[in-house]
Amino acid sequence: MPQQRALEITADALNKVGIPAGNLRRSVQLEIRDNCGDLREAARQAAELTRSGVQALVGGTLAGPRRPWPRRPRRSRRRSSR
């Protein structure tokens, strides 16, 4: 995955020098999850990561044209004759 590789390269570059946070230097640890475009799974994973103490979430990439939800049939609008 090109996005995953880009994140890994960026994390490696940041961790070489450390990220300044006050008097300390912090590092980045990647936790990569695939929600397969499912909104419920994405919400579940975000909640799980937040509960485990993750400090930041980065996301928003979607590969492919697949829609994560089923199409709903359109309702026809009928005008009532009163």
Task: Offer a quick outline of the entry.
This protein has a domain of 50 residues. A hairpin with a 2-residue loop joins strand 1 and strand 2. The chain has a two-stranded antiparallel sheet with strand order 1-2.
Query: What is the number of E strands?
Result: 2
By oligomeric state, this entry counts as single chain
Distance between the termini: 60 Å
Strand order of the largest sheet: 1-2
SSE sequence, one letter per element: HEEH
Describe this structure as you would to a colleague.
There is one protein chain. By secondary structure, the chain is mainly alpha-helical. 35% of the residues lie in helices and 7% in strands. The chain has a domain at 2-51. The chain has helices at 2-17, 39-51, and strands at residues 19-21, 24-26. Strands 1-2 form a two-stranded antiparallel ribbon. The N and C termini lie far apart (60 Å). The mean pLDDT is 82.
Question: Which features characterize this protein?
Answer:
82 residues; mainly alpha
Strand-helix topology:
Layout: H1 2-17, E1 19-21, E2 24-26, H2 39-51
Antiparallel strand pairs: 1-2
